C-alpha cells in the first residue's frame, strides 16, 4: 500500500468510516479519506466501486448509514443537499444534469439560486473568464451546446454557488482529448484561485497528473492512497486497479479505470 502524504494544511473535508447504499444494498463499506484546503484530490477505481455514491453521500443526496462526514470542522453527516450548497459544497454530477430546454444564462442563474442568492455580475464574470464561450452562448439553450460546452456550463453552474469545495464526477466523459485538456487546465486555475477539488475521473492518467493526491476505491472502500506522483509510478496500482497505459503512446486518453482491465 502506498503511504498517505501530509500536505500540512487543515483538512477541509474528512470522511470517516462512511457507509451508505441504496435501500438494503450497501455500496460504501467504511470509506476514509480527507481533502485539505487548496488540494486537488482524485478518486479513481473500477466501474461500480462506489465513487459517485461517495460524492453523493458527502453532499447529502445519498443517506449515510454509518460513519461521519466533517466539512470545515463541522459535522455534515446526513446534511440536506441545499445546506451542503450553502455551506460551500458544490457537486458537478456525472452526465452534467443540465436543464436542456433552459438557456445558458438560466442554468447559471440556477447555480446561484441553489445558494439562495441572486447572482452578482461578478459571479457571471468569474465563469466567463474561465469559459469565454459561455458568454457567447448565453441565450442558447443548454441542449444545443457541444459536449465540452455542456461540461463547462455544468462546472460554471456549480461555481455560481461560490463553493469552497468542488466535487466533480467524471468531467472527461465523452469528450475529445483537446477539450479534456482544456477542462483540466481550468481545474488548475481554480486551484490557484484557492478552490479545493475532489475529483472522480475515469481518465486516470490525466486525473493523477493534475491532482496532488489520489485514492483508489475498490468495492466500496479505499484500497490505496498516496501522492498522485507515487500512484502514477506504482506498478501494482497501475496494473491491478487503474489499468496500464502506454506512456509512449501519443494518446492522452489511456485505458480507463472503469473497465478495470489490464491493457498491455
Ligand atoms: P461508475 O464509474 O460506473 O459511475 P462508481 O464507482 O461511480 O462507478 P457508483 O455509481 O457509485 O459507482 O455505483 C456503485 C454501485 O451502486 C453500483 O453497483 C451501482 O449499480 C449501484 N447504484 C448506483 N446508483 C444506484 C441507484 N440509484 N439505485 C441503486 N443502485 C445504485
Structure explained in plain terms:
The chain folds into two domains: 164 residues, Rossmann fold; 68 residues, no CATH class. The chain is 34% helix and 25% strand. It has a six-stranded mixed β-sheet with strand order 6-7-8-3-9-10, sandwiched between helices. It has a four-stranded antiparallel β-sheet with strand order 2-1-4-5, with helices on one face. Helix 3 packs parallel to helix 6. The longest helix is centred in the C-terminal third of the chain and has 16 residues. It is globular, with a radius of gyration of 18 Å. The structure holds adenosine-5'-triphosphate. Adenosine-5'-triphosphate binds next to helix 1.
> Can you tell me the CATH class of the largest domain?
Alpha Beta
What low-confidence regions span 5 or more consecutive residues with pLDDT below 50? Answer: 1-7, 244-264
What oligomeric state best describes the polypeptide chains here? Answer: single chain
Query: Proportion of β residues?
Result: 25-35%
The rounded distance between the terminal residues' Cα atoms is 23 Å
Mean pLDDT: 85
Report strand order across the widest sheet. 6-7-8-3-9-10
Counted beta strands: 10
CATH homologous superfamily caption of the largest domain: P-loop containing nucleotide triphosphate hydrolases
Overall shape: it is globular
Give helix % range. 25-40%
- CATH topology grouping of the largest domain: Rossmann fold
> Which architecture of the largest domain does the CATH hierarchy give at level 2?
3-Layer(aba) Sandwich
Radius of gyration: 18 Å
Any idea how many domains? 2
Order of helix and strand elements from N to C terminus: EEEHEEHEHHHHEHEHEEHH
Figure out the total of helices: 10
Q: What ligand molecules are bound, each kind once?
A: adenosine-5'-triphosphate
Major sheet details: 6 strands, mixed
Which structural class is indicated by helix and strand composition?
A: alpha/beta
Amino acid at each position: 500500500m502506498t503511504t498517505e502524504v501530509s500536505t500540512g494544511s487543515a483538512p477541509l473535508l474528512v470522511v470517516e468510516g462512511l457507509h451508505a447504499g441504496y435501500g438494503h444494498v450497501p455500496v460504501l463499506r467504511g470509506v476514509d479519506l480527507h481533502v485539505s484546503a487548496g488540494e486537488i484530490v482524485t478518486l479513481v477505481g473500477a466501474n461500480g466501486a462506489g465513487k459517485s455514491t461517495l460524492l453523493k453521500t458527502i453532499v447529502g443526496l445519498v443517506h449515510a448509514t454509518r460513519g461521519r462526514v466533517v466539512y470545515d470542522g463541522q459535522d455534515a453527516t446526513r446534511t440536506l443537499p441545499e445546506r451542503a450548497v450553502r455551506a460551500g459544497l458544490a457537486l458537478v454530477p456525472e452526465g452534467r444534469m443540465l436543464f436542456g430546454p433552459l438557456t445558458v444564462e438560466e442554468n447559471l442563474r440556477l447555480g446561484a439560486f441553489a445558494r439562495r442568492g441572486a447572482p452578482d455580475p461578478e459571479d457571471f464574470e468569474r465563469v466567463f473568464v474561465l469559459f469565454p464561450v459561455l458568454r457567447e452562448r448565453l441565450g442558447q439553450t443548454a441542449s444545443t451546446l457541444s459536449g465540452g460546452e455542456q461540461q463547462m456550463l455544468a462546472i460554471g453552474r456549480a461555481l455560481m454557488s461560490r463553493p469552497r469545495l468542488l466535487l466533480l464526477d467524471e468531467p472527461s466523459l465523452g469528450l475529445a482529448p483537446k477539450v479534456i485538456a482544456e477542462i483540466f487546465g481550468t481545474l488548475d486555475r481554480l486551484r490557484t484561485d484557492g478552490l479545493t477539488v475532489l475529483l472522480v475521473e475515469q481518465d486516470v492518467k490525466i486525473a493523477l497528473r493534475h491532482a496532488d493526491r489520489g485514492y483508489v476505491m475498490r468495492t466500496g472502500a479505499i484500497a490505496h492512497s498516496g501522492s498522485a506522483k507515487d500512484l502514477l509510478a506504482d506498478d501494482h496500482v497501475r496494473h491491478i486497479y487503474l489499468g496500464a497505459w502506454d506512456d509512449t503512446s501519443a494518446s492522452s486518453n489511456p485505458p480507463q479505470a472503469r473497465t478495470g482491465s489490464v491493457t498491455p
